[in-house]
Structures are given as structure tokens and as C-alpha cells.
Amino acid sequence: MIDDSLSAEIKAHILASFKDTEVIKAFTEHILSEVLGPAIKKELAKRDEKIEVLQKQLDEKRCNPPLEEMSSAVLGTSLDLDFFIWCEVDMAFQLTSEAALRDWVVTSDRDNDEGNSWGELVLGRNGKAVLRGTLDTTVPRDGSKQRTGYCNMRCLRPQKSFKRDSFFDWSQYTHVVLRVRGDGRSYMLNLAAMGYFDIMWNDIFSYPLYTRGGPYWQVTRIPFSKFFLTSKGRIQDKQSPLTQDRITSVGITAGGVSGPFQLEIDYIGLEMDPRHGEDFAYEMYQTPAYIAGV
Questions:
Q1: For residues 207 and 153, is the Cβ–Cβ distance under 8 A?
Q2: What would the pLDDT profile of 86-97 be if each residue is shown by its tens digit?
Q3: Measured CA distances, 5 to 1, 17, 148, 208 (Å)
Q4: Among 67, 188, 203, 241, which is disulfide-ready with 63 (CB 3.0 to 4.6 Å)?
Q5: pLDDT for 5-55, tens place per residue?
Q6: Which parts of the sequence belong to the NADH:ubiquinone oxidoreductase intermediate-associated protein domain (predicted)?
Q7: What is residue 200's three-state secondary structure?
Q8: Residues in CB range of 225: below 8 A, 6 or more apart
Q9: Alpha carbon separation from 180 to 105, 157, 231, 291 (Å, rounded)
């Protein structure tokens, strides 16, 4: 900016000199090299330093060649692990909007005339999904049920073209990750894997979801190898690993203890950890085929 203390003649001379293209070019080069140059170099140096720090942190999280060999042994295939970074969670369900909640269905024993429990899935004041309600384990007196008291939320089954049923293919991941804030209750995380035959339509793989209660959020990582097979609410004697490429729905169940419950859910995500080498956490006993019930 031209100083106001300069005389009118000097101002006129400077303005006239700017009409010359060579003068403008020289003046621009002078400004860039002498005035802006040091400032730009300083900012570029700061940027390079930040990039170097981020690159170092990324290199620490990236899978190195020995882990690539490990992943090949664990997963049975060779993966380009540059796409899988430790502690990076791929979102499967981000429950932070009304539109996202419309993909979930909430049921309870009251809906089936089996009890007096009720529940709902709403968007809380913090912008996260809240599964809340009241459980009642009082058994109906008509003798039709031996136990009751549950509430469940379940996502809709994925579909492909022309509304054909499809599956969630999570075979490239090793863990399911949830960010929740609970009330101290234990919930059950359910992964339905409906099979082809009708006796497999009720196959659900489950694992407990423990919550601490209190005001703090918790991030829970559950390996897929820990999920055990259930059918119609009963743990099966003959177990089998979860078929991760044929998951039909995801659900969370509250039950067991009468009283109010509340579970706040931010997201349900997926993580790939090549250090996890477990295929299945439970023993699968080989029983003779002639033994009934197994």
C-alpha cells in the first residue's frame, strides 16, 4: 500500500511505472522473493513437518510385510494391506439421523402377546440413536410361556435389484466395533446368518455386549470368531463358525432383568486386524451321526 506521506509527484511516478509490463513483472518478482518468499517458505516447512509426522504415524499403523504374510496365513488369501489400517473402522451403520433409524425394526414380547415389555428406537438429544424401554419378566398366567421379558432392535435385510434378498459380505474383516453408552446392563449382539434350508432360517450368531453405565462412551471390539451359534434363543450343542459373507441382519437384544433400560448407539463398524489369528473360539466336538439331537 502506498504511503499517504509521499508527495503527489512520487505517487504519479509510481502509478505511471505500473503501466509498463516489465516494471510490473519485476515488482511482482521482488515482492515474491523478498517479502512473501520467506513467509511462504516458512509455511511450506510447517506443512512438510506435519506431513512427515502424519506419515510416521501412518507407517506405524500400516501393516508391514511380516503381517502381510500373517494375514495370508490367517485369512487364506493375500491382501493388499495398504487398504487396511489398524484402528481404522469402516462404518456399517451410522445411527445419527432419522433416515438411518428407518432401516431398523424394534420388537418386544408385547408385540407378540407374550408379555408386557416395550421398547423404542429414537434419536436422542445428542444426535445418536437411543434404544430405550422397560422390561417385564412377569410370566403370563395362562401357562403358554415359561419365560418372557425382551426387547430387540434389528436392521432390515439388504436387497439388490428388483427387491431381491441379499447379504452383508464382511468376510474381509475380523472384528465388529461398536461405540455405545449404556446403563450397566448386558445386552446381546446378534448377527443373523439365514441358511438355504428352512432348519437354518433361525440361525443367529450372538455374543454379549457389556456396558459400563455412567456418562462416558465406550468402544467395544468383538472378534467374529467369538460369536456362537444359537437357534430360536437356544445355544446349540454343535457349533460352527459364522459365515461372514452371508449375514442377513444385525440386532441388539435387551432382556433378563425387569426394569427400564437405555442404550445409546453412535455407530456399528467393522475392522480388519491381521494380528487376530483365531478362526473359531469354541471347540467343535465330532459326535457319532447315530446320536439323536446332535
A1: no
A2: 668 999 999 999
A3: 12, 19, 90, 79
A4: 67
A5: 545 665 566 556 555 566 666 666 666 666 666 777 777 788 888 888 877
A6: 93-265
A7: helix
A8: 174, 241, 242, 276, 278, 279, 280, 281
A9: 19, 22, 26, 43
